Sequence to fold (1552 residues):
Amino acid sequence: MSIASSVPVLQARGLSRQFGHVRALNQVDFEVFPGEVTALIGDNGAGKSTLVKALSGNLAVDSGSILFDGAEVDMSTPSAVSALGIETVYQDLALAPHLDPVQNMYLGREIPRGGLGGLLGFMKTKEMRAESKVAFDELGATVRSLTSPVGEMSGGQRQAIAIARAVHWASRVVFLDEPTAALGVRQTQNVLETIRRVRDKGIAVVFISHSMPHVMEVADRIQVLRLGTRVANIPAENTSMEELVGLMTGAVVHEQSPKESDR
Amino acid sequence: MSIASSVPVLQARGLSRQFGHVRALNQVDFEVFPGEVTALIGDNGAGKSTLVKALSGNLAVDSGSILFDGAEVDMSTPSAVSALGIETVYQDLALAPHLDPVQNMYLGREIPRGGLGGLLGFMKTKEMRAESKVAFDELGATVRSLTSPVGEMSGGQRQAIAIARAVHWASRVVFLDEPTAALGVRQTQNVLETIRRVRDKGIAVVFISHSMPHVMEVADRIQVLRLGTRVANIPAENTSMEELVGLMTGAVVHEQSPKESDR
Amino acid sequence: MSITKPPTETVAIGTLDEPKQGFLQRLVRAQAFQILLVLLVIVLIFSALAPDTFAQWSNFRLIIQNASILAVLGVGMTYIIITAGIDLSIGSVLVFSGVVSAIVMRALGGEGWGTALVGILVAIACGIGWGLLNGFLIAKAKIPPLIVTLGSLGMALGLAQILTGGVDIREVPTVLTTTIGYGNILGTIPTISVIALVVVVLGAIVLHFTRFGLHTYAVGSSELAARRVGVKVDRHLIAVYTLSGGLAGFAGILSLSQFSTTAIAGQSQTNLNVIAAVVIGGTSLFGGVGTIFGTVVGLFIPAVLQNGFVITGVQPFWQQVAVGAVLITAVYIDQVRRTAAMRGSSQSLWRKFVSGGRRG
Amino acid sequence: MSITKPPTETVAIGTLDEPKQGFLQRLVRAQAFQILLVLLVIVLIFSALAPDTFAQWSNFRLIIQNASILAVLGVGMTYIIITAGIDLSIGSVLVFSGVVSAIVMRALGGEGWGTALVGILVAIACGIGWGLLNGFLIAKAKIPPLIVTLGSLGMALGLAQILTGGVDIREVPTVLTTTIGYGNILGTIPTISVIALVVVVLGAIVLHFTRFGLHTYAVGSSELAARRVGVKVDRHLIAVYTLSGGLAGFAGILSLSQFSTTAIAGQSQTNLNVIAAVVIGGTSLFGGVGTIFGTVVGLFIPAVLQNGFVITGVQPFWQQVAVGAVLITAVYIDQVRRTAAMRGSSQSLWRKFVSGGRRG
Amino acid sequence: GCSGGDSGTSTADGDGGYEIAFVQGVAGDEFYISMQCGIEAAAAEAGATVTVQGPEQFDPTLQKPIVDAVVASNPDALLIAPTDVTAMQAPIQAAADAGIQVVLVDTTLEDPSMAVSQISSDNAGGGAAAFDAIQEAHPEGGKVLVVSIDPGISTSDARGEGFEAAVAEDPNFESLGIEYSHNEPAEAARIVTAALQANPDIVGIFAANLFAAEGTATGIQQAGKQGEVTVVGFDAGPAQVQALKDGIVQALVAQEPATIGTDGVAQALAALNGEPTEAKIQTGFTVITADNVDGDAADAIYKSSC
Ligand SMILES: Nc1ncnc2c1ncn2[C@@H]1O[C@H](COP(=O)(O)OP(=O)(O)OP(=O)(O)O)[C@@H](O)[C@H]1O
Ligand SMILES: Nc1ncnc2c1ncn2[C@@H]1O[C@H](COP(=O)(O)OP(=O)(O)OP(=O)(O)O)[C@@H](O)[C@H]1O
Ligand SMILES: [Mg+2]
Ligand SMILES: [Mg+2]
Fold:
């Protein structure tokens, strides 16, 4: 089912981060392997989004280290992280509301014109539009206008744009923070399928969702956060929905050291 | 299962609304009955949120009429609508990010102090805090701090606050636009249970969701929007997930006039 | 889907919460404490440089006196900026109200409290009139506040000039100048400053403790959210601009009392000075955050700087340079300290936004 | 869950889309077309009132000539306001650059192009210097733009006064005054206006068609989003403030050419005038929206009004009142027409926000 | 100091020299700089030190805090150009009450009794003289315009009024009134171009201060009316004199700032030394034209550096 290798492409060790009196991350270990879909689940406020932000260069942690391909690299800014081939769909999406879907899709990665025009910053607008259309179609997104600002679009349309963008650019890791939350039934199925397709290209996928059926459907490995701590890291086939829900709420406690459960 | 009466508490007739070249609503009829959970479903961009905004005084329609308790009343502003006992959880939530959960919960409905203090605008802060805590607890919300701005909170925490607010104030109709999208498993169950409880108090609930299992779990009646038009209005027991999905995507077409299917 | 319903345990609400905070704590933590430290440092430096001249009550007294009118204006401006608005017209409205009030008092004649009281009411009424106009155009006609108040700036000043023919009116009842303008309370505290203090304290109480203040924050935090939950946003905006206008009118009578003239050519810098004070005090131009206390501290920083520079004999041209540099430095230090207080949250964009950091 | 995968039909993308839009269409639709109509109406009214004096090319020529320097400044300000920033320092930077350039040219001596060219480069370099400083403090030190540019306003002006001892320099190479200042192209088109037009057109092309322009909108639309997708937000902000500074420096040499003096104290209103023009032109102070074309139209509305009022003999005091009133009315009409063009979207708060309506 | 040097800093000298503070009506104005030169020269002779301060605009609300601070710094004498006859009354009274010898220079107060002396220019007379110069150039009469600063500034208002009063006495001339340039050359240029467009028969323009004159000159050049319109400026800084020599301005009304400054110091020192003082000194003005600029009026030109 997975073509996973044994070196994690991204590995976090002992991450902690406190906001005021709230300890959002508390000594979290986390790792993702190429060609594997890792589901990250947990109750509301468990720290999932905070972990994603920390791993995508958007949030400084108080302590802990992050390794990429087994080595420490600069992951302090979003642009450094995307240069490593890591893309993220944030829970709050973070699209530029006044820009259109195509501009959002290519923001920061515009295709320059050839020659002098390109040096001066002119862009291949038509090409970008055509490629975006293909990417949106692939997800079955119902984006009805490619020239309206995304701020005017429906929740699901915006989510589809953000997913299309991340999937299009990721080459090593893609984080999807509740990507299907606003999507229709059909779009959700497309996204789950896309996740599998991306995984099969050897890219590591981190899938955050509150929908246990979806998690069971695509995940190869499941890591559970509870109150800022990882309480489980288990292969998807070895668990059940009941166990996962118990782990998230604290009704079930795994008597395991994180090291033992690794792979 | 439902204590529905036969006069719709809220009824929309032939609502249309166009944005630029996009026809978001196209001659939509829609009605909700007291003590009934009406699920409103449809593909992304079908017009569900637009319909909710139109029915909650947030959007002027191009044509069509809205009746409350069978009569035309002023429903042009959100405050007029909430005065009728109609509350809404919007898909984009619309909390004031700099205010804390308690302030958001009571915004526009603050409890005044007694006597002169009340006239001068002083508020019963402690009482509001205590009541908010009860409301959040009821939903099992994981709001960790009652004094932090909600802009700092996780997606699920914010959603829980918005739901708690709407449920707390609604006396006739409550619109829930994808209320469980960001919620954890446990919180989702609580919200579904809350929906049933509210329904049993005789309040009409409009539940928008892309999760067919949740829809089937709580809905008494299901109305389907497709490209801005209502294509079905059916009791929940007479349908199946497959049929609903087909209706939403256009794979199944109901050969029915809306009038016939009414109740 | 067969998920067994998990126990509805009541989790964590408030359990990790900060200890309950009193009024003082909230004020101090929230906004303006760091900038107060900056002000104190400035005062200490000048006191060390010029202990005999700067660090005297007689000098502080005058600094406070000169800041009093601006403080009254600052209260209204703080409300407006918290709603994410702006009011450029306050200086002109001040002048206009002073002019009308002076004309009325001249017509009534007399130097006593009767005339003065009518003048005060007229000035406030004029200010309220302009404020209502501003608020109405902003809330109902949906014209951007910058344009509306730029327009009323010109209109109020032009009308003041038309009413006076461009010649200042200098007949002001003596009771105003002797009591409000230059009178003292307890022998040494300027009456005008006590009046300003009352306005400031009332403004702060209303902003931080009442429904009106809460709605001011709500409108600035998210107008959409406020509107959706049924806050009467339009009415509130009108009220806030009216408040600012009324305070500008009141400041007009204070200015008349202090200067015994309508000073129609004056107040050209007032709007920018007051806006700067509000922003120095930690209020974000993007709305939703701010305190009156911060504004008052924000007023004193440039005032103390100018006073100190004059006393230590810094050349006027260099003063401008120095005030500019110190302003930037002060806000920067405030920034850094606040960030540090948040414990390494320097990457939290949200927090930066909330604290008015990046873009305010 | 057994949902049969529905057909992945390619729905609706672009099918309901507007017909493809050219450059002109985009410009016109997007922002500034309505306000252009307002300008035209104002011109028509004055033309009817004073056909022999107002409605003459000779008069329009002068209006255009007098608006040229502000147009150059307006280009930079439009970029800045689109990023949700503000630059109060342009007037002072203009003066400072003019002063330094005049001093350098005086030291070099000579009335020819050699000296003038050095002067032009020096002025632009000075402007860039201040712009860099502003940008750095805003982007890196995270100090609010209002405070930074208020500070550099004072600093640049103070330094200009220190450099000259407060006395204007009047020695400007004659080539500058005869060609740029008062020269004409094609006999009747002021050279300075042609220069300004080139700057405006270049500014518009870069803003609307290049990556740089796109990132400007992105930063203003959502700084967080831009940062997250890897746009170098800090670098971009520095670049935008540097652009504005450089243009202010260039405007400094234009001003020298036109007035043959450094006019140190004479730019106190420039910043507000330019900001007002940008906002009249439909750019939102909250960022993300705006056009250069709108700014240019926004500059001409007050300029034409003033010219028309003087020509039709309106009393100076009344002029201020009338300019204020017409300003508000113009923006209001623009607002209403734009809203109507959106077909009844008057309730769409989002659209209002996008179009800079409510709060910009 | 006026040369940008360090003479503005008061050095607490041990030689017992007096400390004199000079508060300008507005900082960075050549008129006050020339006055400052006179003051510093006279003070240097007497071994006194001078501190100079001034507000950014001619605005009592900006000048008052400065005066308050100057008083707090406790100089021996205060030379001040009050920006308003009533608004500055109380702060200056406070200075006198603190034992500081006050000399009012250039402008005065409603009740100047606390001052040891008041030395003022005749601004209204200067305005009338400006009209005389236009009258001389255009004996046939015509339309005239005043470009002033802002309404409410006592000095420029007096100039405008003096000018208008003189126009009213000559039936051949018609005044188009006073326009206000808000102290911006660009604004003055816009006004003048529009006025010339509406009234091509304007024969004379009186520009009430330096920026008004510079903008007026620019406007006339833009309209291509050099030589047809007589421009009379007020004050005679190097810039104005340059304009006069270039033929852009035809006449200048010069006050005597240096004399005011010298006299002011003399009066202050007299008061400090317990000698008799002169309660009121009126200084005159000189009309400078191209004919006398290098001749007998050369002394009237203001200095931009001492
Ligand atoms: N910028 C911030 N400032 C203060 N507290 C924060 C901030 N961001 C997150 N928190 C807090 O940290 C905790 C973890 O939040 P996070 O968003 O990571 O949760 P989550 O697991 O993603 O939850 P959800 O499922 O609801 O999205 C929450 O209690 C939240 O209130
Ligand atoms: N303010 C607006 N301006 C322009 N177009 C809009 C606006 N609001 C909605 N639309 C368009 O109207 C259509 C319906 O949007 P709506 O938000 O109602 O969909 P929805 O059914 O709620 O979808 P979702 O399930 O994704 O939330 C979409 O195509 C959307 O792009
Ligand atoms: Mg989350
Ligand atoms: Mg929706």
